[in-house]
Amino acid sequence: MRPIAALVSAAGLLSAALIAPTSAQQAPLKIGVLSDFSSVYSDIGGMGNVEATKMAIEDFGGQMFGKPIDMVSADVLNKPDVASTIARKWWETEGVDMIIDLPTSATALAVMELSKQYEKIMIVTDAASSDITGKSCSPYTAHWTYDTYANAHTVGSAIVKNGGDTWFFLTADYLFGHSVERDTGDVVKAAGGKVLGSVKHPLNTADFSSFLLQAQASKAKIIGLANGGGDTINAIKQAGEFGIVAGGQNLAAIVMFISDVHSLGLKLAQGLIVTEAYYWDLNDKTRAFGKRFLERIKRMPTMNQAATYSATLHYLKAVQAAGTRDTKTVMAKMRELPVKDAFTDNGVLREDGRMVHSMYLFQVKKPEESKGPWDYYKLLAEVPADQAFRPLKDGGCPLVK
């Protein structure tokens, strides 16, 4: 027989466990922003994503479960091992509940493996590979902004339809660039066009001369830029210096952002066909958010920054509606609730983790068409979610029955 004191002690511990909330529920909800603050993707995400996360927390009310919502951030240096080390530390010892951003596909896929291990939520708003919701999908990951499939299908198909039927790719030599080339090449070939070749360049390349000479020599009508951020800007600038467009070839920026157009200026960027998930001058909601963001950071938001706001706000609404921070319960609520905010008014989070929504096809204005700062795009078409994003059945995601 156990001593009476031991029984009383055990009963007391059980009573305390039943009455008191868990330590996890007592701790403040914490969001971690893993971004690029110092390299090629800092303009499209970076500190703008941190600010967007803060705006979402403020707009939600700043508190969850009676405690202020916390936020931490770190620079992943675009290295998967650095991203994994930070994420592990945040999830193991710092009480981070959700990680957002992830600037490259390689960093996203690395942290996705950890999120499965720790059963923690992560939301990808910068990285673009369609593999994130395809063969590498995870029950704990949401992919929010765009992906290589959606961009390839909106920009690539439009260009082929307008006569751009031979392509040569200038490709960033890592998963994102390879995914852009693969997905756009598939679109070109499906539409009856031909891919004449490609050349790979390192991430964050300063000198594109040798790569552009190969693209020029291909005689392809379209040089597809399967890169992003600073690499896209440098490639377009140097293509101008080589007289590539003047010589009859055209550039297709598959993944381009308003910050890229701003850096290039309308004289260089005019006429480019681009696809975006968000543009500040689309409607009253986008304009209101864009102007608030501009006041805080002195730049209009990129689609990634608007998406980071949207994803953070949606996550917070889901936690509140679920009444818990339990990962599986919150993810189920995120899929149940529609996404309606300044980023999109028709978003739905699918079981493969893809948040589907309208995409937009734009043409960059000529300098004389612009009415002022950041007035850069002419809307060509709104592409519905079911046309822009890969069908659920075609992605190869093991979660899809």
Automatic annotation (TrEMBL):
Pfam families associated with the record: Peripla_BP_6
Keywords in alphabetical order: Amino-acid transport, Signal, Transport
Gene Ontology BP term (one): amino acid transport
Occurrences of domain Leucine-binding protein (ranges): 28-365
Organism domain of life: Bacteria
Signal peptide region: 1-26
Entry keyword annotation includes Signal: yes
UniProt-listed InterPro entries: BCAA_transport (IPR051010), Leu-bd (IPR028081), Peripla_BP_I (IPR028082)
Keyword Flavoprotein attached: no
Family the entry assigns: Belongs to the leucine-binding protein family.
Name by which UniProt lists this protein: ABC transporter substrate-binding protein
Species whose genome carries this gene: Bradyrhizobium frederickii
